[in-house]
## 1
Amino acid sequence: MLLQKGGFPQPLGAPSPMLICDLTQSWSAKAGGGVGTYMKAKRDYVLAHTPHSLLQIVPGAEDKIVVDGRHIWAEVGADPVRGSPNYRFILRTKIVREILARYRPAIVESLCPWVLPWTAIHHRRAFPETALVAGYSTDFPNAHVFRVAQKLFGTPIGRGFQWLSYGYAEITYREFDWVYTLSEDIRGVLARRKIHRTSVLPLGVDITRFHPSKRDPGYRAELGLPGDGPLLIYAGRLDNEKRAQILIEVIRHLSPSLGAALVLIGDGKRRDDMMADAAGLPIAFPGFVADRGQLARALASSDIYVSGMADETFGISIVEAQASGLPVVGVASGAMIDRIAEGLGLLGPVDDAAAMARNVEAVWQDNPRAIGAAAHLHAQQFSWDRTFELLFDDIYPRALSHAALRARTGRRAADRAHLAAMAAG
């Protein structure tokens, strides 16, 4: 049974203010992640800067709805994901559809690729006036499906699964009124799959919270880490996708005389075996840090941010590190190429711990404080206000306009009208 606290908001018939819904599987109270960061920042923006209400539907241990003024938090009971105990996966889509039918949001924004996008699509078939927006935040056919299938079955079969997944993406996201990606490259991937109603939505960072002034000289000693060389830090899931395990090899490749140490902030299915692998090395595993202020302190108190993630689609954690005044040593792949411009750090080959170690040494022997200062200035262009102004002032109006046209003329006519408008410039 759904539990509720507080009163339910009254239905809003006018286009503004309106009720907006975020819908995702990619949320965890214990593991953080880019989607979770986005949802929290969006909640704060909606309540502080708009007249709208926000309904956020996520997986949880049990069914629960909590209403707090204009914010509605709905958890749908779901089982843990096998191998990733901090995440849950909603299969009880009937409950999700009941929540959507009860609140009738003007816009449903889908933030994950599996199951729930089709729940939103089926909801719109019952309520044709609903606008559907999708965040294509990860190129999942490549980053998830191909990587796993290649490891299990080899490259040729992996490519087959990848091709099928792109077909699924094409069928799914052409149903949405608007889709945003996090980079022009991924926008191009969707265009090749005939998904044309797209925009690029740069994500943001809290540039007042993540700041060099949060540096605490006592942080390293607090973790019990030896040495007076570079303190490396990574913040994110400790799993295969993030390739965090390579960072342990980086420490092994660094000369002991450098006095380097590493902080791996986060949780995930690889944490236990990574801790066993790192035994005897100057590496700390403080776990997931839920308090954003404490995360800002950890970043600002370190010297170099390191990441082996090859499929980064935007890199919120990278920009938070840059805002905190850190150079970045990463890999020349995915969004890292966009985030780490010349003079802000160094990039090397994917899965090459020796090359990453050499880049750490090069940054440390250069002028890491000056590089970090440049990174801090670079990060100032990324703010959540800018992100949500683009979302509310451009992407949502486009989606609402297409949804209204589709409701009047049907999907095919609306799609033809959009293509004609694109051709006309």
## 2
Amino acid sequence: MSARIEDAGDRLIILNGNTEKRGALSPELYECILTAMKQAEDPRIRAVILTSEGPFFCAGGNLNVLIERRGMSEEARRGKVDELHDLLRAMRACPVPLIAAVEGGAAGAGLSLALACDMIVAAKDAKFTAAYVKAGLVPDGGLTSAMARLLPRPLAMEMCLMGRPVMATRFAELGAVNRLAGSGKTLEEAMVLADALAAGPRDAQGVIRDLVADAYEASEADQLDAERDAMAAAAGRDEAAEGIAAFLEKRAPAYR
């Protein structure tokens, strides 16, 4: 099985099982991610973790498949890229935080998947590679947009123009990785992050996720309006009533 979803109570774990091809993208992985995004609408779910069953998170697109696409029309090839982009849009619309647990490394569209998540736990020896240029290709999957937001321009250019890998430790220094873990321990550390998220207010977290994501592209005026509307709505919810009461009473909040 090249991909599956594991229901872990208040979180979903998407396991990329395409180990023979270093976690390369597969139709089954697409289907699992899309299914998990729908399942995450259940109020019981507090986080989704994307990881691999093998020693490598995701090597990106299968080059043999890309060779087959040479015989397609350019319009047909655009449609195939749109399938990946629709996947990224579904991840963006997820109502709960997404956590990538990266073992070994993430390359090409695999790096796009990792950076599309809200938080990243990476093995200390993991490598991040924008590998497209080595195959005479260019980035897709929103990679250039994500890198422009997260990384200094010279580093983003070097990664994309030369395809040189960057260690997870460097990404952590730049704030693009939230936690470093020992090899084989990234899922365990991601579960710790999910535990912390599960103790928080689910609705507020979902709104915060949207606000922060939109802030990279919105004007300051539009973002101020968005924050105003979100705050006015949040202040009337039960989560705020419980959170404020717990703060004043010096106790841990008990969100539903």
## 3
Amino acid sequence: MSLTNASPSEAAKAAKDASHVLATLSEYARNDALTAIHAGLTAAKQDILAANARDLEAARVAAESGQLSQSLVSRLDLGKKGKWEDMMKGILDVRGLEDPVGKVTLRTKLDDGLELTRVTCPIGVLLIIFEARPEVIANIASLAIKSGNAAILKGGKESTESFIAISKVISAALEKTKVPNGAIQLVTTRDVIPQLLDLDQYIDLVIPRGSNDLVKYIKSNTKIPVLGHADGLCSIFLEQSADPKIVSDVLVDSKTSYPAACNSLETLLVQESALETIFPVAAGNLIAKGVTLRCDAKTKAGLMKKLPSNLAATLKDAQEADFDTEFLSLTLAVKAVADIHEAIAHINTHGSKHTDAILTSSSELAELFMSSVDAAGVYWNASTRFADGMRYGFGTEVGISTNKIHSRGPVGLEGLMIYKYKIRGHGHVTAVYGEGEGKKSFKHEKLPL
């Protein structure tokens, strides 16, 4: 990894050149680089956390003056809730995954002596633009190296100290390996995002990690394909037959375990027949965890009858805009629906196609929900917080995609691969094949992989 203040085009060209070398390295060479990165970061932990603490203090001051959001500050803290340990484990997990490069996924005998194969290959050069989240550098570097992709990283100014500290360690580690130094670059030059987004001749995919505004800006200002999501507006439908303990456990985890995450619960849809049975206990548990419930008229009326007066007094009236809002805090929009069909219609209209769940004892309704909801992740009786590359067994992730093509959901190694077709022949030409007299027909025989 190199810390570069080169021009965007120079950095991108260097990454493209390095990608051609990286794509040819053996699995052993790529894994050796991950081992070196893990060892370097382990040795430098205290220095990196000290740099992160300086970023965090400056960010807190900025948040107090309204320049940064509290959710961004939360994402910046590398020492929070085992984030460092998760980052380090992710490197080793990626190293231990099966090599994704050069896997044969199709073999066809076109004719005698003429064979077609389809093999996996790296995308090329990735541009990752991110805010806060200093662990992104290690995550992206690991996934990019393992998958044979080069990567250019551009971070936000709010976490510059952390980025530089981590990057210096990774750069020193890679110097001892066969991975080209230009394969992973952190761009330190300010105000270069527009120029980077113009470099479609070098950069093959943009992956944004940050606020809605950042993602929307990138999607609107580049010809390069973008992999990511603008919103994490996750919903849960509470159906009348759900187990009360499952309801409380899943709702509390989905909303309170990390409210600033994109897979945190933002909208709760409650079946009308559950408003005065299952829902009040779960609502009380959420309120006890500090959650503010913004309720529509029906859900508020049901809770006012069942909750103790001190808890009922905390309820807020929902506005229509709340059901299109990613709060990223301990605020939850709550709405009553007549049945599963109304719940599905609401989610498909207001959701962001990220992750949605149903709480029910009916397998039939669960399968209907999971088939009908248009989202990258659909769950039954499980927290939305499972939408995560590490939890899916991907080692780590470069982000979560709500795209309808290529990768969807948490994007790990597989999402960073494409494929190429190879034909091996013996002087074969197309002119001899066809339907007319004297023409040959293709055999098109499927061969074992």
## 4
Amino acid sequence: MRRLNLPRRPRRLRRTAAIRELVTETAVTTADLVHPLFVIDGEGTPQDIGSLPGQQRLSIKDLVSECEELHRLGVRGVALFPSIEPALKDAAGSEALNPETLVLRAIRAVKQAVPELSIFTDIALDPYTDHGHDGIFNKEGTDMDNDGTVEILRQMSVLCAEAGADFVAPSDMMDGRVEAIRESLDDAGLIETAIMAYSAKFASAYYGPFRDAVGSASAAGTNLLGKHTYQLNPANRREALLETELDELEGADVLMVKPAGPYLDIIRELRGNTHLPVAAYQVSGEYAQIHAAAQLGWLDLESCRDESLLSIKRAGADIIFTYFAKDVAQRLQKA
């Protein structure tokens, strides 16, 4: 057999497992991960979330235990999402401003038990409204009242920060909310509370299981609720970069792209356009589709899980929000 005259043979660096590990360019560690968690009121047993296999709605007591376990495994942060009783929901999301609302009690409990764990709290009204939208409607009932919603988000942010949240995370996509929240936090003396802005949050079809988990789907009557007047058009790259630029100018400390997997190009471009940390949210639909395909025997769960997270990190994300965080942390601890 005649050998090719090749001065460079890239396969030399793939020849053995040891060599492949030596030249590995990207790795996901527990320090990269934030675990989203759902909290419910009362003392009942955890509630399984059918569309999110392996995930549960937890009482505050169970939430604290889960956070202690995540911290022991090396996970650095959790994102808390309340699932409140339907009777507490109204068109204005009034429960969000209750000083004793569920998420505030959860923040206090987790921070007291695991002070080293970073807490991210969602700043949006969809868990609290009876229509499932992220804000309040205008007088005509035709669209979100941008400025009226922002005024509520200001107050929500201060309450969450006072309860002990390390990051307030506005996910509503209202114009000007980052600057308004920063101003309100600073006026309240909460200058050390950081803002992680959901800056490039797309009107995605991948959010359905999350809406089931927090109950906004049942409030709206569908998990296909259209939010196209405030969330980003999936077709628009430049618009996403404009949104992230504005949030950075308004004082955001971290910029997020959501969802992650279908928007790796946005993560990559944002990484090249900012010096701020970039977060990406591997959303409920991304998690659920990997589980569903694995349950049917079509894909290997662990391999696809790890590859999906690696692609997000390789694209440029510094922080990855993922429901796989605990599983990955357990695997890495055993390695």
